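Notes from the 1:1 (GR / supervisor)

We went over the backlog. Supervisor wanted to see one worked example end to end before approving the batch request, so GR pasted a single chain during the call. The sequence is below; no edits were made to it. Supervisor asked that the structure be written out right there so they could see what the output format looks like.
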Amino acid sequence: MHGVPRLAPALLSLILVASALAEQPPSPAAGRSTGDYVPPEISQMTRPQSSELRELVERFVADRDELLRFYSVEGSALQIRRLREFYGAWSRRLDAMAYDSLGTEGRVDWLLMTRQLEYSQKLLDREESREKEMAPLIPFAVDIARLQESRRLMEPVDPQGAAETLNRMAADAADIQEALQSGLGGDAPKAPKAVKPLTTTPITAYRAVAAIGELRESLADWYKFYDGYDPAFGWWVRASHDRLNEGLDAYVKFLKEKIVGIEPGKDEPIIGDPIGREGLEVELAHEMIAYTPEELLAIANREFAWCDAELRKASNEMGFGDNWKGAMEKVKDDHVPPGGQPGLVRDLALEAIRFVQDRDLVTIPPLAADFWRIEMMSPARQKVAPFFLGGPDILVAFPTNSMEYDDKLQSLRANNVHFARATVFHELVPGHHLQYYYEGRFNPHRVLFTTPFWVEGWAVWWEFQFWDLGFPKSPEDRMGMLFWRAHRCARIIFSLNFHLGKWTPQQCVDFLVDRVGHERASATGEVRRSFNGTFPPMYQAGYMLGALQLRELHGELVKAGGMTNRRFHDAILFGGPMPIELVRARLKGEKPPRDFKAQWRFAE
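Structure output shown during the call:
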């Protein structure tokens, strides 16, 4: 008689995982007819649901995109000049409109368009200023722009002249590299002509590296158009083009390693590009925030004090006394094993949807409730996004097999059960996923006016709501929610101090570790994400400040005004993205005047 055969450990593990997955409830989408996703009110959708200016906004976006497709060399003098003409003409046309004949929604769009055009002109000013700072490092930018723009304007190409231009650009790149090497105090290679030493900053060099990348895309597009099509072009230009590419490869490598400080095979240093006080004032005016940077820092510190008090309460309940950092370390150790994060995310998402539906807080159409997806982030992406990301889907950060041992541990701890419980609903429902659903169906033209104060403020506002309504079940859950709330305060503080020129990126990292309780790897990723050019300067401040605006508005209209939670939240989503002060005007049924200016002191 033979005994039961023993299974190999790996096979047994697979069977156990498969068994566990089989017991888990499927997505709600599996049990619902797709006919249920057709909106019942479809027969009533015959009247326009948007403002009188919806088509005007859509026309502006289409025309601007066409202009940028034609004048495609980023930051060139011709592109900037053409955009200035375009924005100026739009501003004059808007100014001539009969504003007083518009309703509330039309006035909101008029104000948003006017604000957008003013901001676009300010950004052109900033771009011109930066182009001037970079000009000594990329003197060949003018030639590349001229080549591509000449093709766009359908001017005939001169192959011999083009080859001569490419040779000159290659020589310019070599000369600048030699001048920078001399400016560093090193021995520059001998050249036929003397080159005056040149110095620059890591920030300007970092900016120049990005600009060269964009210029090379334009150059490649120009070259591809003629090469193989025009026999004379290939005969004259090919060798000069290859020489220039080799020279630019060497120059970019020099800038990265010798000026920016990027070591081959290692993570890039965080450089960033602070915009200064004047730049922050432009951004605050664009976001319709009637506060100075110093006042916003004071608001953040006030909210931080509330977080500190609540952290001590939760820490005492966990048996750590006032040592909230010790309690936070214990919370971080409560994570699912490798491979378990998708199941945790699914369960937390479904719990949050039920939480909102049971309390009738906002309308969640079946399509929005069911059709979200989970995707896992690569190790490279986790370098700049160490936590969840969201939108149409949720992107999950968790260790992968290729990570170093310490990185795996830090990722496990940074994405523990209690931190995840406080962020899954932020990314999905009722947070960003629900926003995306409504943005695509109601006032979609207002995507032009997207602002972090509306996008991220909405998601953090739900963190406020879930806290107030008792979503955290334990002191550990409260620690998880408080980590993120303190993190939102810290984002205001470190981002404003960086752009004011008061803090370095390393000081920002240290602040997140010491003041919020981040793992160092996740703090570094957060700061890199904030300053690598992916997000506008006020983005990180928009999380908490937008939520504070919505909290004040909720107090005015729901707590004091008698509006239901569902009506309040639905009205925000129906209106689409815009500064919260204009959301306030919409929800209060006001007709904002033509000279409407930000003046709401929402955090008093």
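Supervisor's comment: The longest helix spans residues 104-134.
Batch request approved.
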